[in-house]
Structure formats: C-alpha cells, structure tokens
Design a protein that fits this description.
By secondary structure, this protein is α/β, with parallel strands linked by helices. The protein contains 23 helices and 37 strands. The chain crosses the membrane at residues 6-26, 59-81, 626-649, 656-675.
Length: 929
C-alpha cells in the first residue's frame, strides 16, 4: 500500500533495476561507425546521399523507450487505486449505528451495506467501540462491541418485508445515550416516514445539537411501492406510490405473474413532477387476469413493490344464456341487458349469441366458467347431464323463470314447481301485485336492504314441501318463495321465481338486484374445480377462520419458506405485513389468502429531518479503480510513437510508391419485381345470400319433397305478382349440412313415423330460430283430426321433433295478432284444408295490455305450427296450374291460402311493424270501406 495506491504484485517493481541496462543497450545498438579518411571520396562530397542513417539514437528517443519499459513493469505489478472511505464522523468516542432495514431500504441494500461496512472499517482503524441497532428487528438491549464483532452481525443483516418500527426503540436508545453521553450517532435512513417518528427524532435531537448525528439518506431516488390492486371491468388497475421528494417526472412499468412466477402481462406508468401517486392498468383478458397472483414493480426489489392477489380478488366470469329470440333480445327488452348491467361492476359477462342454449351451455362449461345464468331457458336438451355434472364439480347455476321454463319438464331445479293452479303455463298471478317479504337470516341475502317499491306481478309457484323453508333465500309478502337454492355436490343451484327482465316484476330495476347477484356470484370460486366450502352456502358459525403461512416474502420481495415466528392470520381480516404476520400467502393452494406489506389505501410520506441538527451524507462508496488498463493503453501509445519515429528516421517515407488503384468494379443488381399472379378462382356465391329465397326441409320422402318444392314455387310466383318482393327459386335444404342463416323462412313438412334429426342438427335449428329465423311445421293431418283422432302419427312425430328444441309457450293465432294483418287482412290461415288450427308463440297479457297484438320486442314468433297442408294448396306444375284440389273445392280457399303464405313471409321479413299505432287509422279506414 502506498496511501490510496495498492499493488497486487509489488515484487514486479524489482524489474525497475533493469532500466540502466536497457539504457546502455539502447546506446550501443546500433554501434558507432568508424571514421576513415579516403581522399578519392572528396569527388563525391557534393553528391546528395539517397539515405541517411543516424549514428546513434537521440537522447529523447532513448528516454521514450525507457518510459515504455517502465510502464510495462508497472502494469505487471497490477496497481489499484483505493480511495479511503469518507464517513463524515468524528474519530473519537463510542459510535451508535441506527439502520433502517425495512422493505423501503431493500431496493439499494447492497449499497447501504457497503457504506455501513466502510463506516465500521474506519471505526476499527480508530479503535472505537460500536453498537448497531436494526430498526426493523425486535427490540433488544444495546451494548458496545468491537467493530470487528459488529461487522459479523452486519454480514447477517438483511432487509425485512415490513416497515422499520423506530418508535419501538425510543426508550432503549434514550437509556443508551444517557449511559454513554459521548456517543456519536450514524443513522442510515430509508427516507420513509413512520407512525412514531416524532418521538424517535426527539430522542436524537439532543445529540444533534452537539453535532454528533450524521444522517445518511438517498436524495437521488424516491421510495416506490404498490397498493390497492383492483380487478375492474377495463382491466387490472394498481396504485403506484412514491415519496414524491423529487420534482422530476418518473416512468416505469409493472409486471404481472402467475403462481408459477411466469409473466402474463406488463403495463407502463408515469409520475408527474412532484406527484406521489399514479395508477396503471393491465389490459388483459379476464381468464388471464384471474391467473395473476403477483404484481411487481420492474427493477424495484422490495416487499413493498409487490402486490399479492388471492382468489377472493379474482373477477368471476359469468355466462348468460337467454331463451329469448335474438331479435327480441335488445336493450331495455331482454334479460341479457338487465343481467349484464347488474353484473358489470363485479364480474365479466359472456352472453351467448347466435347459438342454441344447449350449445352455449356446452361452450361455457368447456371454458370452465364458474357461474352460469339461464334466463327463461326451458328445454336444456343434451346439455342437461353435462350441466348437472358441472354443478356437482363446483359450478353455480342461476336460473330465472319465464314462459319457457314454466312449460318445460325439467329436473334441474332446486325445488319442485307446482303443476296445477297456475296461469300462462305455470305463472301465478294476482289481482294485486305482491311486495318483497323477507330474506333468510342464514342465507346470503341477509342484511340487504328491503325496498318497498319492488312489486311482483307473476312468479313460478313452488310445490309445498318439508324441505322448502330450508331452500328458500327470499320470500314475498304472502310467504311464497321468490328465490330458492339447493346445494348439489360442491356446487349450487339457484332459482329466481321471476323473470330476469321487467315482464313479471320490477325487481331488476331496483338497487337490490345487483347486490343479490353479487352475493350469489360471490359463492362461486374463479373456477368450477374448487374446494367444497367455496361453492356452498355461507356458514352460519361466526367463529373466525385462520390460515397458516404457506409462502412469505423476504425484504427483497422474493418468496421464501415462512419463518418460525410467522403466525396464522384470520381469513376475513388478513391485515398488512408485520413481524408475526409477514407478507405472503396463507392457507392451502386452492384457497390462498394474501397479506401485503401495504394497506390498499396506503400513502408514502417522506421523512422529515427538521428537528435534527444533523450532518447529512449520501449513500456513496468510492470503488477501487484498476490502473493496469490505463497504463497498458499508455504503453501501446508509446510503442506506436516509437515505431513511427524509427520509420521516418530511416527514410521509409521516401521508399513508398504510390500504386495506382484500379477503378472499383460496381456490381449492378437488377431488382426483379415479380408481380403476383392472382388466382381468379371462379367461385359461385350462394344465390340465397344475394336474393331472398324460401326453403323447405328435404325429408327424404319423394312425394313430400316434390310437393314442398312445387308449393314454395307457387307461393314465390304469387308473391312476385302481388308484392314488391321478387324471391328466387325455392331451395331444398339439408339441416345437417346447409347454412340456414340465408333463409328467412323454412317450411318443414312433418312425415309421420320419421325419426327426429340428431341433437346436433336440432341445436342448429334452435340457433336459427333464436337468431330471428322462422320455421313452419306442417303436420298436414287436419282431416284425421276432424275424424276424431286426438293423437295422429304426424302429431306424435311433431312432439318428438319439438322435444329437441327450446320452444316457447304457444297459443292459437289471436284475432288481433300482427300475423293477421301483415299484408292481407285475414281471420283464418287456410291451406289445402281449412279446419286445422294455426299456433304461434304466446303473448303475455295483463289487464293493462289485454289488446296487445304482438310479442314483447321487435321480433316475430320463431315457430308456426299448422295442420292445413299449406304446400298442397300452393303447389303448381310447370304451367302454373294447381296440382291438388282444396277441401272445399272453391278457388277462394286457394286464394286465401296464398294470402296466408304472403302474410307469413312478410311477417318473417318485416316483423311487427304493422302493430305500430301509426297504422291504426289506415287500418280502420280500410275496414270501414
């Protein structure tokens, strides 16, 4: 050591004694030339020599070469410059080191530790006794020790995942300073204000007045942390906090990880100058969001820069399946609208569109959704068994009443519904609307507000049973159930006995409805395969539940094995991290509870040092600098200079010849622009997509299919002649292969004895009807029914067909139905026969809307059932002559059959616009004429 200069190989300096020998060698080489007088050479005296060679090396060149040799020797000695550490402390008396080793000091802990180590080295050189206090550790007695012993304690010191508790050391530090009044204090602060800092600063103030306090602080960086993560509909938002001591903008990013510590997303954030808080959002799909277990600040390694997320934080995904037709399912008219608005604040909603209920249920179950809500879905079809198994595995199914559910035979209900004594296929009605009665004290709705303005006009009535009170969560004023539920396996089955829209009640318009759904959805986990307790009814016991530590965080924010001092936490009140409850995950892997270092509403405040008369130092340690590379570069420069000097002195410049350089050959690359050859594949588009066509179902029975083709051909010609519509030739379709969406209306003749299509095909038909399409089922058996046959073969076949569809409640066409006036004014829908009844979707009616002629919404009935053989009356040959006689023998009947067909087509194409009140006056005038 030579002051701040150290040599790793000092023995190499012995080579410096070789410098005189090197000097002599350089003086002797080249040897001095011998001078000989030769008179004849006088003739050449005036000739200019071509080359001049120095007789000996100049002194300055010799000195340069000696310096080069000295540099090489010095480089081999490996010189290192080690500046001495500056502590800013007087060099006498005891030394008390106060170390903030909470999470706020973790981000630059190595630098802090090096500064403390340098302070201890200085104290050891001055033979000063030292006491070290870690302010995030439990309180212990303070005692002086040699600096070397304290250095061993410092080597084992690490940041803790909670904040330094300075207030707990006030008494111990005060007693120590009174016993050792000459003590000098070095406080290695993290810059973050705590709860009891005033008392702590007051204890140090007396020593500060004597100039015996030195405070180390980092004035170039703010303390950063995360708090208050929120799984909002727009994404995962998290609060980013800083102490705000720097009046400069700050940018950074947060990263989301799953339980396996695999990254799933990242987002940037920006602080305005002087701002202490900002918010960033991770825009991720809900399935990925629910996998997030940890959000951390990139580059900030501390427990405070980590937010742990447990299963209670996850946003549930709710699948909604509505039995309503798609064109009826519009805002303010559909169950999807009310359910979506009620669920939006706390769940992500997936509504089934353009598919049958059974297909939607299958897809939602395959996607592992934890909650499904079925709004007036009656026939579950082939999905019922799969749905039942999904509930047993932990899913939560919520069903809402309606005409379809009332008319269907369904076992997937929590209670048995009354079959008799109901109106409109299972809806109980009153002369006076009922109000809410009460919520079960042990049910999930306990404690919710009971509004007085909720009225129930209809409900599905439950069959009285001994288990009914235990399954009832909410009742009406007359004691009848409003909401019933049953635990099945690990899942839950819930039934609202009213509709999910305003048809039967105004419950969906109240503020209580979203809270009821929140409670129900809260009973589900984020996935169906969860523990049984998560999906069942809430426990009636009020005893607190505790969870043992599973994985905890260290001060640097990394997971570690829980320390022996970690205690279980209450599941309902996990709190924030502290020595007995360090931040981390508690409980089993399928029911983790997260404890974080900061509360959701926490703020970071900078530490105020105003009460102290202290000397302030920055966290900085001068690093050793290796001088060898610099000496090497200098030696190389000397060597290059020596070579150039010798080159010029030896006349090398004059021997250089300038070689002519040939012109550089320029290689020209031709850019070939290959024009793409477009393949003009002549594809023939579906004509049905470009021109309206009627369609019929190909049954496989030649006579029936020929009649259907001839009938729709005749109807299309009649429509072209009498209306502005010009339909194309009719198409025969295969329900299993052809696209049904191209056709507004499909005619389906029922062939007696035929087996129904497979469930997958019926699901396509169901989706077509839900998407606004209309199907006409024609049994063509009116004559058999007139003969007194109650159950005809065609009727039995139709029942089997309809069993695979989600069919609404039906009724004969009412006199004022819009179908009776879509184009022609009709009071009956004839075909080849005139005695059969025509059925359409039933229209709910009350005393206020008894004359209501159409369905709720702007749609049409997705189904028409008749037995009058419509195609037989419409059928024509190539000469447009009728193929079959009508039952009365009068052509007036055939004309009325054509008009009935026109009304059905216009009804399928235009909906219920004729029901608008603006047309009433025109209709009345026509009736008057």
């Amino acid at each position: 050591m030579f002051g701040p200069l150290a040599l790793a190989s000092p023995w190499m300096l012995a080579a410096l004694v070789l410098l005189p020998a090197i000097w002599l060698l350089l003086r002797l080489i080249p040897p001095r030339p011998q001078r000989i007088d030769f008179p004849p050479l006088r003739l050449l005296y005036d000739l200019m020599p071509r080359q001049r060679v120095a007789a000996r090396s100049p002194w300055w060149l010799t000195a340069l070469r000696l310096l080069l040799a000295a540099c090489i020797i010095a480089m081999l000695a490996v010189p290192i410059l080690r500046p001495s550490a500056h502590t800013g402390l007087p060099r006498s008396g005891p030394l008390l080191l106060l170390v903030d080793n909470g999470w706020a000091a973790a981000s630059n802990w190595d630098l802090r530790k090096n500064v403390i180590q340098a302070t201890l080295e200085t104290a050891e050189q001055d033979h000063r006794p030292v006491a070290l206090v870690a302010l995030a550790e439990p309180v212990s007695d303070l005692s002086l020790s040699p600096a070397a012993a304290v250095a061993e304690k410092l080597a084992a010191l690490n940041p803790e995942p909670w904040q330094a508790n300075r207030g707990a050391f006030v008494k111990a530090i005060g007693d120590f300073l009174r016993a050792e009044p000459d003590t000098e204090i070095a406080w290695f602060s993290d810059g973050l204000a705590g709860a009891d800092d005033n008392a702590f600063l007051k204890v140090l103030a007396a020593s500060g007045k004597q100039g015996k306090v030195t405070v180390y602080r980092d004035s170039t960086h703010d303390v950063l942390a995360l708090a208050g993560a929120n799984n909002a509909p727009s994404g995962v938002s998290v609060r980013v906090l800083r102490t705000g001591t720097l009046e400069v903008p700050l940018k950074g990013s947060v990263r989301a990880l799953d339980l396996k510590s695999l990254p799933v997303g990242q987002a940037d954030f920006t602080f305005a100058p002087g701002a202490s808080e900002t918010t960033t959002t991770l825009d991720l799909p809900v399935d990925i969001r629910n996998d997030i277990a940890r959000i951390e600040l990139v580059g900030a390694n501390s427990a405070g820069s980590v937010q742990l997320l447990d299963r209670n934080w996850r946003r549930r995904v709710v699948g909604i399946v509505s039995g309503q037709d798609q064109d009826v399912s519009q805002p303010l008219l559909s169950a999807n609208y009310y359910l979506g608005r009620a669920l939006q604040p706390f769940a992500d909603v997936r509504a089934a569109q353009g598919t049958s209920p059974s297909e939607a249920i299958d897809r939602f179950i395959d996607d592992k959704l934890p909650v499904l809500m079925l709004a007036d879905v009656g026939n579950l079809g082939p999905a019922e068994d799969k749905l039942s198994a999904w509930i047993d595995n932990g899913g939560v199914l919520v069903r809402f009443a309606g005409s379809r559910l009332a008319a269907a035979e369904n076992t997937l209900l929590p209670v048995k519904l009354r079959e008799g004594g109901r109106t409109l296929g299972g809806a109980l009605s009153w002369e006076k609307p009922q109000k809410l009665g009460s919520f079960d004290a042990n049910g999930p709705f306990a404690g919710l507000a009971m509004p007085d303005d909720i009225t129930i006009n209809r409900q599905l009535l439950a069959e009285p049973d001994i288990d009914l009170p235990g399954k009832t969560w909410a009742t009406l004023a007359d004691g009848t159930p409003l909401v019933t539920a049953e635990k099945r396996g690990r899942g839950l089955l819930v039934l609202f006995h009213v509709t999910a829209d305003t048809t039967w009640s105004n419950l969906v318009l109240s503020g209580t409805f979203p809270e009821m759904l929140r409670k129900v959805v809260g009973l589900a986990t984020s996935g169906p395969a969860a523990d049984a307790s998560a999906a069942g009814t809430p426990a009636s016991s009020t005893a607190p539940v505790f969870a043992s530590p599973s994985r905890t965080l260290d001060g640097l924010g990394a997971f570690e094995v829980p320390p022996a001092t970690a205690q279980p936490v209450r599941v309902d009140q996990p709190g924030v991290g502290r020595p007995d409850h360090p931040p981390g995950f508690y409980g089993p892997s399928d029911g983790l509870v997260a404890v974080n270092a900061l509360a959701p509403n926490a703020v970071l405040k900078p530490l105020e040092f105003a009460p102290l008369n202290a000397t302030f130092e920055a966290y900085a340690v001068a690093k050793p600098v290796a001088l060898g590379p610099a000496i090497l570069v200098f030696a190389l420069a000397l060597l290059m200079a020596d070579a150039l000097i010798v080159f010029f002195m030896s006349g090398g410049l004059s021997r250089l010849t300038r070689a002519g350089t040939g012109a550089a050959a320029l290689a020209l690359f031709a850019l070939v622009l290959a024009l793409p050859h477009e393949a003009h594949a002549q594809t023939r588009p579906f004509d049905a997509a470009l021109r309206t066509r009627l369609a019929y179902v190909v049954t496989g029975d030649k006579e029936t299919d020929d009649t259907s083709l001839a009938g729709l051909k005749g109807l299309s010609a009649y429509i072209t002649e009498r209306t502005a519509l010009e339909p194309g030739p009719p198409d025969g379709i295969d329900l299993a292969k052809d696209e049904l969406a191209f056709y507004p209306l499909i005619y389906w003749p029922v062939v007696p004895g035929q087996d129904p299509p497979p469930p997958a095909v019926m699901a396509r038909v169901d989706a077509f009807m839900k998407s606004g399409g209309m199907v006409i089922f024609d049994t063509r058996d009116a004559v058999q029914r007139d003969a007194g046959q109650a159950d005809t073969p065609a009727g039995d076949t139709l029942k089997r067909l309809l069993a695979g569809l989600d069919i609404p409640e039906l009724e004969p066409v009412p006199p004022k139905h819009v179908l009776t006036k879509t184009f022609y004014l009709l009071d009956k829908f004839m075909g080849r026969y005139d005695t059969g009844e025509t059925w359409v979707q039933a229209t709910p009616q009350t005393a206020d809307d008894a004359d209501k002629p159409v369905l709720d919404g702007d749609g049409v009935s997705p189904i028409i059932i008749t037995s009058n053989d419509l195609a037989g009356a419409w059928a024509v040959d190539d000469s447009m002559n009728p193929l079959f006689p009508v039952s009365t023998g009068l052509e007036r009947q055939r004309e009325l059959a054509y008009r009935a067909g026109v009304n059905m087509v216009m009804y399928a194409l235009t909906g219920n616009y004729k029901a608008d009140q603006v047309h009433v006056q025109d209709l009345l005038e026509r009736l008057g004429r």
